[in-house]
Write a structure and sequence with these properties.
Number of strands of chain A: 10
CATH superfamily of the domain at 50-162 in chain A: Rieske [2Fe-2S] iron-sulphur domain
CATH class of the largest domain in chain B: Alpha Beta
Strand order of the largest sheet of chain B: 6-5-17-16-15-7-8
Bound molecules: FE2/S2 (inorganic) cluster
Helix content of chain A: under 10%
CATH architecture of the largest domain in chain B: 3-Layer(aba) Sandwich
Structural class of chain B: alpha/beta
Radius of gyration of chain A: 15 Å
Structural class of chain A: mainly beta
Oligomer: heterodimer
């Protein structure tokens, strides 16, 4: 799917959560598609398509602290240096996550050595290579993962979120 | 679809006019308070504060820890019996002093386990089932109760009370409450009069802390506040971050970080204070150790990595070191205790060199622990030490002396009945125990051995527990159950369509041949129910009103906010239906004496049972006296700490901590007995080189009976794990995520290998209860002969690699959980 048709696809509100955006958005440079059955459409949230960075700005193990889908929602964009679930880019190792702990909203720290996010409030930890899978902690969901898309030029776009960001009733405020 | 579970990206919020209830978490002993919101499907609160019941502005991002965020796992859409569909949200209560809006992974995912016909909880038991034609088919309450009542009565008449065995919940919280426990006890003890009774997680009807009781100490003497005030907290055999998570996070950690210093100075102004220290006695380096170290600094946390089965030796060595330094509380010993002399030749005579050899803990570490427990603070003021123990100790080598050795240490150092002190259980489930007295003796009979495997009982009623995986030596238990119940299946098949008389006669014949009639009462079709002849569908938490206490004796009302599925009923009502039917049968034949034993079950409401149960707690730590539901409703999630001293203006006045004013305690000598024969036999057999310890993990609750319906949790723990030291893993040529078989002469089980240096080499730790691998297939039949409590925590096994499970290796994480 080209960028333009992708954009209009989103504009008509057809992009849905539960992973559909991710697999649709994987595009040329993407990891292999999943064969799992599509889930029921659970949302019609109008996720914006936002350019986060160019691939060359990413250094392995160093997070870029950005926001998505709005400036009140901090995220971390990372090149892990090893293949990650839902990772994009030639090595399928570029991922992004909400930085708000899915327990009670603590600000997560990324630890490159383990490839994990850690919360200083109650010690929740999430695996950055496994779609934010909880390692241990009191959170009630895995860490929300930002769905990414990389175009031919190497620009990385955020196009949706898997899971509900802490502190919201819907990922898109309003 | 992502390979990893993520919940929906939005959640409905309650409108202003949502119905509101209060409740308490159904799971662990800590008992976090929850608010419940319920409103019709098709409606939703608006994002502006004026338009939602939380009065929160959802057009903005909320800050951290507001206690007003609803995660999708806290929400469900339920269907009541009249077909009405409603949203339900269960929100941790920010105004509850226990949790302050915090929640564990277990309680925070309650939305996922409410019954809903179109969600993973759809497999709740909704109707009674009866064995028919080699399967179990739905039937009416009338038929299920009628056949069972006839069988129970016939067996009782023919062989006497002990022919009926039971294994039942005794929990507070989700598994019971005072109401259900009272009805169960009244049925089995007043009605049947059986000694063949056993509590859900053990083979007998016993206290897990007989020694504490004999010493004069109730199981839960202190308050959670004491963990904020203590100079030193000692955790013995407990991994509290994962098993009493919110007690640990909200009350222990603030002490370790110094956040509770202000409170210490306010409440105890006469003495010097510092941030608290923590001693953790555990054969495993757990997440609790790592987090405590991270919060307090490694200099303030002492992990005593004890060898399996040597708790008594360690506790006695500490007592000796303290006594030799003169750090004992002589005034307390003289004024509040007796029998001190008895420990001078036992506990206090523990050889210190031998102690190091057996426990694996250096003398220096022991000395440091002794200092932290009892070395006086500046100006010679006594340290305040809170000693808390749980299953690692209780289910250790010898239950009675294990507990006694800790109790003696607390008495020696005067740590009881004062702020910041105490000696008690951390607890597993909540408590709601009230029953007529058990008619058996002490030590109580081992029901697994005598009644089930030994054949002494012919009817077995299992309620709210899953012994085919949860009991000790579970594989042998399963084999027996399968054989004995099959004989009754045959009798039922042969008399299909026959009269009640014929059917009961055939069942009795089968019983003569060793047959066992099995009744299972539960909320889900658990593994034990597979063998049952009759399955009763029970209501769960939220589907009836119930009352319970938490680990600091905090009594609250857990309100009903939805209907049970189908025709499921609260446990108390099921017991009452059976009692009333048996009463009727006895009356019909003019046997008034027996009829009277089964009378008095004609309660109409949950509260009537609550009031009836008050007599069973009189004088106990849970004594709630004249308290009523209305009084409890008025005090919401903060409730009141039992025992209730008096009712003042309709308000129950309780007790923050026990023994402040009174109480006299008895030292109980404790000597290390060495390893019992079934264990030493395994120790001397090179085919079984690994010590197998086991326990709970953060993500799941008990047998995972609820968690199996939480995709988030099962995505993290699809199979039981076994932690194996890297040295052992390399010998076994294992990689993370490999499937292994653990085996010994008692049974075998599979688990997924997690390679981590949390245990000493040669020692492994396995998740204790997972329906895809019951650890207890490996435990021996050994119990402490003085208490009939099993040594669940110690067995030995061989380990063999089966192979890799690549899809799970990809989808799971193997980053060690014991880091912070
Ligand atoms: S907010 Fe992150 S662990 Fe609680």
């Amino acid at each position: 799917m080209s960028d333009i048709s992708r954009r209009s696809f989103l504009k008509f509100g057809a992009c849905v959560a539960g992973g559909l955006c991710a697999s649709e958005a994987l595009g040329e440079a993407a990891a292999p598609r999943e064969t799992a059955a599509r889930p029921a459409l659970t949302t019609v949230l109008p996720y914006p398509r936002l350019k986060l960075a160019h691939a060359t700005q990413l250094k392995t193990g160093v997070e870029l602290r950005l926001t998505y889908p709005d400036k009140e929602s901090p995220i971390s964009l990372l090149k892990l240096g090893k293949k990650a679930i839902n990772g994009i880019g030639p090595d399928a190792d570029i991922v992004a996550y909400s930085r708000l702990c899915s327990h009670m909203g603590g600000s997560l720290n990324f630890r490159p050595s383990a490839g994990e996010f850690q919360c200083p409030l109650h010690y929740a930890r999430f695996d950055a290579a496994k779609s934010g899978l909880i390692i241990i902690g009191q959170a009630t969901d895995n860490l929300p993962q930002i769905q990414l898309h990389m175009d031919r030029k190497g620009d990385i776009y955020a196009v949706g979120i898997l899971g509900l960001v802490y502190g919201r009733r819907a990922n898109i405020l309003g | 679809m992502s390979k990893i579970f993520h919940g929906p990206d939005r959640v409905p919020i309650p409108p202003r006019d949502a119905e509101q209830f209060t409740t308490v978490c159904s799971y662990c002993i800590v008992g976090c308070g929850y608010r419940v919101y319920k409103w019709p499907e098709g409606k939703e609160g608006g994002p502006k504060p004026a338009h939602n019941a939380l009065q929160v502005d959802f057009t903005r991002q909320q800050g951290a820890q507001t206690g007003t965020w609803i995660s999708p796992a806290m929400h469900s859409v339920v269907t009541d019996r009249d077909g009405t569909r409603s949203h339900v949200v269960l929100l941790p209560d920010a105004d509850c002093v226990v949790n302050r809006g915090n929640h564990s992974i277990r309680g925070g995912t309650h939305g996922s386990v409410l019954y809903a016909p179109d969600r993973p909880t759809a497999d709740r038991l909704s109707h009674p089932l009866m064995y028919r034609g080699s399967t179990q088919l739905p039937t009416t309450w009338q038929e299920a109760i009628d056949l069972s009542a006839h069988v129970i009565k016939a067996a009782l008449d023919k062989w006497g009370p002990d022919t009926v065995a039971m294994k039942c919940f005794d929990h507070g919280g989700g598994g019971g409450g005072f109401e259900n426990n009272w009805a169960v006890g009244k049925f089995f003890f007043t009605g049947i009069g059986t000694q063949m009774a056993s509590i859900h997680n053990r083979p007998a009807y016993n206290s897990e802390v007989f020694a504490a009781g004999d010493a004069g100490i109730a199981a839960l003497p202190s308050a959670y506040l004491d963990a904020e005030l203590a100079d030193t907290i000692v955790l013995i055999g407990a991994n509290s971050y994962e098993t009493q998570s919110i007690y640990f996070l909200e009350h222990m950690l603030p002490n370790l970080t110094g956040a509770s210093l202000v409170k210490k100075q306010q409440l105890l102004p006469e003495e010097p204070h510092a941030a608290g220290r923590m001693i953790i006695v555990d054969p495993r380096r757990t997440s609790t150790v790592a987090i405590a170290e991270s919060a307090a600094g490694t200099a303030n946390v002492l992990h005593l990595q004890i060898r399996n089965g040597t708790d008594i030796v360690l506790m006695n060595a500490l007592s000796r070191l303290i006594y030799e330094q003169g750090w004992q509380d002589q005034a307390f010993i003289d004024g509040r205790t007796k029998n001190f002399d008895a420990i001078t030749t036992t506990n206090l005579a523990q050889d210190l060199e031998e102690a190091t050899k057996l426990t694996g803990i250096s003398n220096a570490q022991m000395m440091q622990a002794a200092e932290w427990i009892a070395k006086p603070k500046a100006s010679n003021i006594r340290r305040r030490t809170l000693l808390l123990y749980e299953k690692g100790l209780i289910w250790g080598l010898k239950n009675y002396e294990n507990v006694a050795s800790v109790v003696d240490l607390a008495l020696l150092t005067g740590n009881l009945g004062k702020a910041g002190t105490g000696c008690g259980r951390l607890g597993g489930h909540q408590e709601g125990y009230s029953r007529p007295n058990y008619p058996g003796k002490r030590p109580p009979v081992n029901v697994d051995e005598v009644a089930i495997k030994g054949g002494a009982s012919k009817v077995f009623w299992v309620a709210g527990c899953n012994p085919v995986g949860g009991t000790l030596n579970a594989q042998q238990f399963r084999i027996t159950l399968e054989k004995r119940t099959a004989l009754v299946n045959q009798a039922l098949d042969e008399t299909a369509g026959g009269t009640m008389e014929r059917r009961v006669a055939a069942i009795l014949d089968a019983m003569e041949q060793g047959g066992l009639f099995l009744l299972v009462q539960d909320i889900y079709p658990i593994d034990t129910a597979k063998y049952a002849h009759v399955v009763f569908p029970a209501a769960q938490w939220g589907e009836m009103n119930l009352t319970s206490i938490n680990g600091e004796r905090r009594l609250r009302l857990y309100q009903k906010f939805m209907d049970p599925p189908g025709v499921a009923e609260p446990d108390w009502k099921i017991m009452a239906m059976m009692a009333q039917r048996i009463e009727h049968l006895y009356r019909a034949e003019g046997n008034r004496d027996m009829a009277v034993r089964f009378s008095g079950f004609d309660w109409q409401t949950d509260e009537e049972v609550f009031r009836a149960a008050a007599v069973g707690v009189a004088g106990a730590q849970e004594d709630y006296g004249e308290t009523t539901y209305a009084m409890l409703k008025a005090i919401g999630t903060n409730g009141v700490q039992t025992p209730i001293k008096k009712i003042e203006d309709g308000k129950p006045i309780g007790t923050v901590r026990l023994y402040e004013e009174s109480g006299r305690f008895t030292f109980i000598p404790a000597k290390w007995p060495g390893y019992p024969e079934p264990i030493s036999k395994l120790m001397n057999d090179e085919r079984y080189p690994f010590w197998v310890n086991n326990g709970r993990a953060n993500h799941g609750w008990q047998t995972l009976y609820d968690d199996q319906r939480k995709p988030y949790v099962m995505g993290r723990e699809p199979l039981p794990f076994v932690e194996i030291h890297p040295e052992d893993a390399s010998k076994l040529e294992l990689a993370n995520g490999d499937l292994v078989e653990l085996f010994n002469p008692h049974g075998s089980v599979t688990a997924m290998a997690v390679i981590v240096d949390s245990n000493r080499p040669g020692h492994v730790f396995m998740l204790f209860e997972h329906p895809k691998g019951w650890l207890n297939s490996l435990t021996t039949g050994y119990v402490d002969p003085d208490t009939t409590i099993p040594y669940y925590k110690g067995t030995k096994a061989g380990i063999r690699k089966i192979g890799a499970l690549p899809e799970w290796q990809e989808r799971l994480t193997f980053i060690p959980t014991n880091q912070a």
